[in-house]
Amino acid sequence: MDGRGETNGPKDAPAIEADDAVDQRLGETVRLLRQRAGLSIQDVATKTGLSNGMISQLERARAMPSIRTLRLLSIALDVPISYFFETTDPADVQRYIVRKNSRRLLRLTASGVVKEALTPPDQGQLELYELTLNPGASSGTDFLQHTGEKAGYILSGSLRLWLDNQAHLLEAGDSFRFPSIVPHMFDNPTQQAARVIWVTTLRQTDSPAG
Predict the structure, then answer these.
(1) 51 near 59, Cβ under 8 Å?
(2) With a threshold of 0.90, does the pTM exceed it?
(3) Which of 60, 113, 165, 179 is the 20 to 30 Å CA partner of 144?
(4) Distances (CA, A) of 141 to 61, 67, 103, 119, 185
(5) Rounded-to-integer distance, Cα 101 and Cα 125, Å
(6) What is the pLDDT of residues 116-161, one digit of tens each?
(7) Radius of gyration over alpha carbons of the chain, in Å?
(8) CA-CA distance, 122 to 115, in Å (whole number)?
(9) How far is CA 33 from the centre of its chain?
(10) 10-55 pLDDT, tens per residue?
(11) Are strands 184-187 and 158-163 parallel, antiparallel or unpaired?
């Protein structure tokens, strides 16, 4: 679900200002990574399948990306999706360990999803997250495909996982694993927040499909 649509009702001014700061930081990160890679907006659009306008709006903080959009951007820019997370105090960063109070956050306010990185910031073959999905939250409106695998465990609440157009409603204690090449998306169709441990493997040779 790209764009500025809100999922949780009106917000007060401080919350709106915080969301704007998140959008601004994300936009600047996308722009800097694109420039560092020597890519034009058109190049990134071709690699991701997103429109020139969408990428331009993201870079100018005029649109809020979905998880699907960030995954496509991470593949096109050859970085882990954790590059888009809020930074933490360098003094709190350890090479192999992540303390609970030092987790990097990614708040996708329009999608109703909060991702907490459970793996250190160094690039690797495995990404581990804790996802909080507010009621109505989703990964986006389109299916995603790429190489690698995904797995997860439902800590609380419910997650509806769509695999190749088939919906699976998962409850607390349920788990899953699937090849990431299978078209997939997810959402929370309930009125209660859900918490999920999410695991992703992604090789450097990955390229978006579909």
Answers:
(1) no
(2) no
(3) 60
(4) 20, 10, 28, 27, 8
(5) 24
(6) 989 988 778 888 999 999 999 998 888 988 889 999 999 999 999 9
(7) 16
(8) 17
(9) 16
(10) 444 444 445 566 678 788 888 888 988 899 999 999 999 999 999 9
(11) antiparallel
